[in-house]
Amino acid sequence: MTARIGSTLLLLLALLALPFATTGVAQEDDEQLMTESELALKLVQVLGLSPMLPVNPSPAEAYQILLLNGVSPKDGWNSTNLVNFGNLARILVQSMGAEDDIEDTTSDKAYVDYLKSIGVEFGTIQDAIDQTSPIAQPLANEAIKVSTDPLKKDAFIRPIDEQQSGADLQVFRKVIPAVEIEQLFLAVPVVEPKRPDALTPN
Amino acid sequence: MGVTAAVFTALPLLAAEGDGDWLTVRNRIRIEYDDNIYETERNKQDSVKFIEELELHLNASLNQTYISLRYRPSFIYWSDRNPDDTDLHHDLDLVLNHEFSPRARIALKNTLRLAELPELIDRGTTLRQNDDYLYNVSDANLEYSLRPKTFLRVGGRYTLLEYDDADVAATENYDIAAGGVTLGQKLSGDTILNADFRVEQTDYDGPDRGSDSLYYGLGLEQTLNPAFVATIRAGIQDKEFNDSALGSEDQPYFDLVLTYLPSPDTRISLGTGYSMFEADVFPFASQDRLLFFGNIAHDLTARVTLYLAGSYQMSDYSADQAVENDRVEVLSDGSEEAFQASTRASYQVNKSNWLELSYQLISLNGDLREDFDRNRVSVGWRVEL
Fold first, then answer.
1. In terms of DSSP bridges, do strands B150-163 and B174-186 run parallel, antiparallel, or are they unpaired?
2. How far A130 CA sits from the closest chain B CA (Å)?
3. Which chain A residues contact residue B247 at CB under 8 A?
4. Disulfide engineering: B53 pairs with which of A133, B74, B110, B294, CB 3.0-4.6 Å?
5. So what's the ipTM on this one?
């Protein structure tokens, strides 16, 4: 089994090298176009949510934590939809925690007008992203989530009293003392080495 | 640590290139009453605690590179815990993402936890050993788009757990190396189908509770409606124990997470998962773990938010999966249930200050270790600078 795992890891390393062979490619021209999944992956970074997510989160993992923090386009997250100006304004307001200040939440214009009223203007998607700050009280599942994926599974061990996102939880971890182990299970009896028979002279 | 120091130095320079807030400073002070600080069934010891927690979060987002460094030390003073009445914990999280091209991106993450928890000695008997520990997880992950709707994700992870106390370390220290590949296909804007393959090698310092595992599975990520996202993963885990007497075991595994936004004021996440997992209890080499969890946040008003979180874990241990050792012999199977719940009310005083009231419960019942209930109530003040 160890040999199988070793050869598999070698294969993975080879796969890891694959993109570097092609990264000399120039950036695509359509930098102004961005899908909602690309925006979601950028947003979790600028909103300070990355430490609460697995490394290189999937679009759905990004959507889930953004939804938990009340950030969503008008028609929900869709991986192939292109980001439009109205949704960008909506997401920016939600990220600020200011959606309660919007009277008509069905109107994109209300969000754009609100941003103008507080002096936030942007010409490109990157402009908007650059004006986004980390969420003050982020909500995440990091304290309670379970994953069976060995590349993502959350630790069952965390410092006592660690502040968690949302409600506080101390993830359960208790080391069992040796005394307790020996009380719970049957202690292995100590066997005295057998003494050799006394030698009798011939 | 060298990488972290370099990031600390370089981050302000990099952040100056960007426009956003690159440094967030938060502080949280709590006064807490804890009714069972040693998690015992009888002779419970209670204590009032003063908890000071500082969070420094450096966050720099450049055009193609993102760096996040979060350091969170916490200091705890216990009014009734002798002989050591203070703890100091350190959390350090580093995230480094880089986009080589629109088709290729790499991500690195390191999670470090250093925690103190002193031993408990009663009338000359050690009731609980010193379990100060270092826990570190290093992740590397690369995603490459093979075609517009097809991507490949390759990842590796190394986990290390080391206790200070030699006696604890002898049975609890472990390291886990894992690697894997995911091939994903966007079926539509709402649906992504993944095929996963993973390898995992777990090694313990002491009696060999280690194992090698292979995982074969499928995953589905689905936006069910604008306010409802679901992820599901399922497959087969083939686990071969290092101790040849334990043999090997094949079992299914699954994860399900549902996130729902019924209204802008209410956010809900629910999930469940089942798999073989590292055993919490020596001398077992594995446990079968089923876990449910949930997280709800509701904004009562623009200033008052209620949070509720909980998890329920059921673990089964088989005597057939207990390793031979010179300390104890396991003759029967065992199981245990762990329940946790937490609720918090937060009142936003102004743009940067919050007052908090929280309650937490932990309960353990089973036949492998001492049952206990632990309740904690706290009031706190949180400020963002």
1. antiparallel
2. 5
3. none
4. B74
5. 0.87
